[in-house]
Design a protein that fits this description.
Length: 324
């Protein structure tokens, strides 16, 4: 049998933050077993020949992993975080008294649980969430600072929600090439955790959580509309919170739970002002309008702060847009 040394790639930003992009590929059974045991605990590869590959992308809060098995194995793993998996035919599993096959429906493994997996010529797709981060995200989404994340069962609450989770995961996999960007990664992470919390049966009253989530979404929608309408005025986040009938902390929780491109009201207010300034610069006559005038119109008293915010949003200095 020919063997290959595992190919290992690391994302270019690992030295600057906790982002990682790692890959391994090997056709050697001993190398496969050594890698898997280092990553996942006890693994017994039950084959004389075969191949294995894994690609993992993420950071300290979450990761997306794709594992391809061209062999038969048994994996015994005590989870230290939340895992949610789906596969092609050939990945049977047991967690406590529950068992199934990830090709039939996705399943959850919770911190402290022991997974016994039996992959056989299959491809596994896996989403992992850090326990503390997932609990923090759930508390923001449902507006409940006392919420403890625990799932009542391994499988989805319904077939419809199963399909929703699988569709969200398929979309997330298309975003892997841009996951080096923190904003893109945060967007993917937020979509995945929201879909996961709705798809798998959290312990507690789902009606109360759903009502709280709807209230959070309503606060977010009302606040963004109010900020858009008043962005030219000297408003603050406290003003926005009062306008929509919540506290400043309540407003921040609503943005953390529902924001897509930005997840704080301060960032949304700045983005709204920069966007409005951009529209003014496009329409302005450079012979009659200055950058300082446009910046001041939209609440920027510091020219350098406006230029930095504009460049971050549009990739060029505002003077370039004004001069077109």
């Amino acid at each position: 049998m020919s063997t290959r040394t595992p190919v290992f790639r690391r994302g270019p930003y690992l030295a600057m933050n906790d982002f990682f992009d790692t890959s391994v590929r090997t056709a050697d059974v001993a190398e496969t077993q050594a890698w898997l045991q280092a990553q996942y605990g006890h693994v017994d590869v039950q084959a004389d020949r075969g191949s294995f590959a894994e690609h993992a992308v993420g950071d300290a809060t979450f990761s997306i992993r794709r594992l391809t098995w061209q062999c038969r194995a048994e994996v015994i793993y005590e989870a230290d975080r939340f895992y949610f998996a789906t596969s092609s035919p050939g990945y049977g599993w047991t967690v406590g008294k529950e068992s199934g096959d990830y090709s039939l429906e996705p399943g959850a493994v919770q911190p402290g649980q022991e997974l016994v997996g039996r992959p056989h010529d299959t491809a596994l797709q896996l989403v992992a969430f850090d326990s503390a981060w997932m609990e923090e995200a759930a508390r923001a989404i449902y507006g409940d600072e006392s919420l403890t994340v625990r799932f009542a069962a391994a499988g989805p609450v319904s077939r419809r929600m199963r399909d929703y989770w699988l569709a969200t995961l398929r979309w997330a996999l298309t975003q892997l090439p841009i996951m080096t960007e923190p904003l893109a990664r945060a967007h993917v992470r937020r979509a995945l955790v929201a879909a996961t919390l709705e798809t798998f049966p959290l312990v507690g009253d789902p009606r109360e959580r759903r009502a709280s989530a709807l209230e959070q979404a309503s606060i977010y929608t009302s606040a963004t509309a109010w900020i858009d309408d008043h962005a030219s005025l000297a408003i603050t986040v406290d003003d926005a919170a009062r306008a929509v009938g919540t506290s400043t902390e309540g407003l921040r929780r609503a943005f953390a739970a529902n924001g897509q491109l930005v997840d704080t009201p301060e960032a949304y207010l700045q983005a709204a002002r920069v966007s409005a300034a951009h529209a003014d610069l496009l329409d302005a006559d450079p012979a009659c309008v200055t950058i300082d005038e446009v910046a001041a119109r939209w609440g920027f008293t510091d020219r350098s702060a406006f230029v930095a915010a504009y460049r971050a949003a549009y990739g060029v200095a505002p003077q370039v847009t004004l001069g077109r």
